[in-house]
Amino acid sequence: MMKQLHAASVMGALGALLILAPGCSKQLETKSGSAEFEQGAAKPASPDKGPAGQGQGQGNGPLKGFEPAAPGKALSEERSSDGIVVAKADSSDAARRQAEELQKDQAATAQAGLKDIYFAYDSWKITDDARQALILDAEWMKTNKSKSVIVEGHCDERGTQAYNLVLGEKRAKAARSYLVELGVGKDRLSVASFGKERPVCQDHAESCYQQNRRAHIVIKAQ
Question: Distance from the CA of 134 to the CA of which of 2, 64, 186, 198 falls in 20 to 30 A?
Answer without folding.
Answer: 198
